[in-house]
Amino acid sequence: MSAPLISLCMIAKDEADVIARCLRSAASAVDEIIVVDTGSTDGTPDIARGLGANVFAFPWQDDFALARNAALEHARGQWILILDADEELDPASAPKLRQLAASGGVEGFFVHVYNFAGDREDSPAVINPTIRLFRNHPQHRFAGRIHEQITPSIQARNPAAAFMLSDVRVNHYGYREEVIQRKNKTERNLLLLQETLKEKPNDPFHLYNIAVEWMRLGRVQEALEAFRTSRMTTDPKTSYAHLLYKCEAKCHLALRQFEQGAAICEQGAAVYPAYSDLYHYAGIFHLNRGDLAAAKDAFARAVKAGPPPSGYHTEEGLGAHLSAYQLGLLQEAALDSQAAADSYLHALRCRSAFAPPLYRLCHLLRLVGREADIVPLLLERIRVDDAGAATGIMDVMIATGCSRAALAWLERTKHLLQPDDIACRAAMAELLSGLSEDASERLDLLSRNSPLDDHDDTLRLRILICSMDGRHLEARQYWRQLTRQHASDRDAPYAAIVGEPADPSPGMAPGMSNAERGEWRDVLTAAHANAKHAASSRIAESWKSRIASAAPAGRIEAAAACARALSGLADAHLEQLARGRKSRELAGAVRLVLPFEDGSLA
Q1: Is residue 242 one of the residues assigned to a domain?
Q2: Model's pTM, two decimal places?
Q3: What phi and psi values does residue 113 have, to the nearest 5 degrees?
Q4: Of 169, 288, 428, 569, whose CB count within 10 A is highest?
C-alpha cells in the first residue's frame, strides 16, 4: 500500500467549537489527519475522530515545538500540512495543495494566512506568508517553545533547500478579541516568550514576538523599544524584517508620535520600496500632522505601488482599495472631483464589495452635476453579474440621492432581476425623484400582471404613493392591511405618514435595525421630494420620538442616520437656491461637507 500523499498535522486543546470547521475544510486536500490533543475536556478528540482523524494524547509541556513534533512522528504522508483548529483552508485552495505536492525540487511552500483580528466580520485581514506545507522527513522537526519554526531543520539537512511562494489561502480566526480573552492567549504567549528570552537574550525574532504581545496588552512603549531593537539587529533579508518598520510605525501611531512615525515609514520604504503598507501608514501620519499635501502624495505612492509582493506581511486593502479610497477623500477635499472619482473607481475595481467609495462616488458626481455619468462609469469599470450586486449598487444610489441614476442602472441590469423586483425598486426610485404618478402607474401595471398587492413591500409602496397623491383614506386601508398580516419594525415610518399610531413590534424598542433606518430615510425623502411638507415634518417628529425610545446603545447610530437624512433635504434646498456662479460655488462647498449616507452605519 503506497504512503498517503498529504498528512494534515494539528495540535489542539479544547477546540470543540471550531475543529470541525477546520477538518472539513481540508478533507478533500489531505489523505491523513493527525490530531495531537494536549488535554481537552470539551470533547475535541471525539469530534476529530468522528471526522476521520487519528487522535493521539500528548501532555502539554509549555512547548509548542514538542507538541508539533509529536504529531509529525505519527504522520505517514509524503508531505505535511500544518493547520490549527481555529483556521480554515480556503475552498479554492484544496486542489492547489494537491498540485503543489506533485512538485519536484522544492522542500516547502509558503501559504498566505489571513488573520482576522477585528470584532466585525468584515474587518480587513492581516496577511502573513508562512511555511505550512513541507516534505515529511525524520530530520524535519520544529524548534522553539513558541512561534515554532520548521525551516531551520530543513535547511540543516539541506542547506540548498528551495522554498516557494504559493497562492494557497488559510483563514485564521484565533486572534479575534473574544477568542484571545476566552483562551487567555496573550498571558500564555507572554510567559513562554519570557522563558525563551531568558535562554536567548536579545534574540531579534523573539523580541519581535514579545513586542506583539505587549502591543496587545497596551504596553506600547515597551513594544516600541523591542521592535526597534529587533529591527536594528535583524538581517534586512530575513523574511519578517520589512514588517518591523511597520510595527514600529504602529507604535508611534498609538503614542501619537506622528513625526517619528512618518520618518520610520520613509526609512523603511527606502529599504523596501515595494512595501506599500509603509506608504499608506505614512499617509495616516501626515493626515494626523495636518499636512494634507504630503498625505495625498503618500497615499498616491501606495496606490501606484499596488499590493505588496507575495512574500510581504501586509494588511488587506493597503496599496489597493483602502489606499485608493483615502486618496479619493483627500482629492475630494481639494475639490479635484475628477481625480477623486477616478480614485473611488480604482477602489471599486480592487474590491467591488467595498461600499464606501461607491457611496462617495455617487454623492460626489451628483453634487458636481454629473449624476448621468454614474451608470456609464460603473459599467465601464466594474463587472456586475448577479442580482445581489446589482440591487446593492442601486440601493447605494438611492441612499445618496441619485434616484435618476438608480432608474438608469435598473434599466441596464434588469436582465439580472425578477420583474416584480424591478417594478418595486423602480417605483421607489420614482417616488424619491418626485414622480409619484409614474410610480403609481408602474405598480398598477404590475398588479395587472402579477398579484402582488398583499406583498409587504408592495403595500408599503402603496401607502407612500397614495399619501403622495392625497388619497389618504386609501393609504390608511393599505396600512391596516400591512399591520394585520405582519408586524415589523419597518412599519413605524408608514404609520407616521398616514397619521396612525405605531404599535411597536416585539423587539422594536431596544434599537433600530438597518432596515428600519432605511425606511425612515426613504419615507422622509419621498414626502419632501413630492412637496408634502406637512407630512415631512410629521415624519421627522415621529422619527425623533422613535429614536428617543431606542436603547442608548443604538441611539447614536439612529440619530446619525436621521441627521444624514435631514441633511439630504438641506442639500436639495441648496441645489434649488444656487443660481448664480458664486452662489453655486458657495452652495457646492457647503453641500460637500454635509453629512450624508456613506454606508458606515450598516
Answers
A1: no
A2: 0.86
A3: -95, 115
A4: 428
What whole-number distance in Å separates Cα of residue 79 and Cα of residue 34? Answer: 13
Does 535 fall in a domain?
yes
Cβ contacts of residue 575 below 8 Å, gap of 6+? 587, 591
Task: Give kind and range of the element (H or E) at residue 346.
Answer: helix 337-350
**Looking at 153, 176, 199, which one is the last position of a domain?**
176
CA–CA distance, 185 with 551 (Å, rounded to integer):
34
What phi and psi, each to the nearest 5 degrees, are found at residue 4? Answer: -65, 150
Q: Which helix (H) or strand (E) holds 413?
A: helix 403-413
Q: What does the block give as the cell for 347?
A: 477602489
Do the domain assignments include residue 136? yes
* Interatomic CA distance for residues 525 and 431, integer angstroms: 9
Q: Kindly give the residue spans of alpha helices, DSSP state H, lying in 414-471.
A: 419-432, 436-449, 456-468
- HEC letters along 480-533: HHHHHHCCCHHHHHHHHHHCCCCCCCCCCCCCCCHHHHHHHHHHHHHHHHCCCH
CB 446 within 8 A of CB 476: no
Q: What's the domain range around 23?
A: 1-176
Total domains present in the chain = 2
Q: Is the predicted pLDDT of residue 233 greater than 60, yes or no?
A: yes
Last-in-domain residue among 176, 202, 228: 176
In a domain, 497, yes or no: yes
Placement of cell 496588552 in the chain: 217
Least confident of 101-110, 289-298, 390-399, 588-597: 588-597
Q: How confident is the model at residue 44 (pLDDT cuts 50, 70, 90)?
A: very high
Q: Kindly report the CATH number assigned to the domain that includes residue 162.
A: 3.90.550.10
List, for residues 152-209, the tens digit of each pLDDT value: 999 999 999 999 999 999 999 987 777 766 677 788 888 999 999 999 988 999 999 9
d(Cα 292, Cα 305) in Å, to the nearest integer? 20
Residue 62, Ramachandran bin (φ over 0: left; ψ between -120 and 50: alpha; else beta)? left
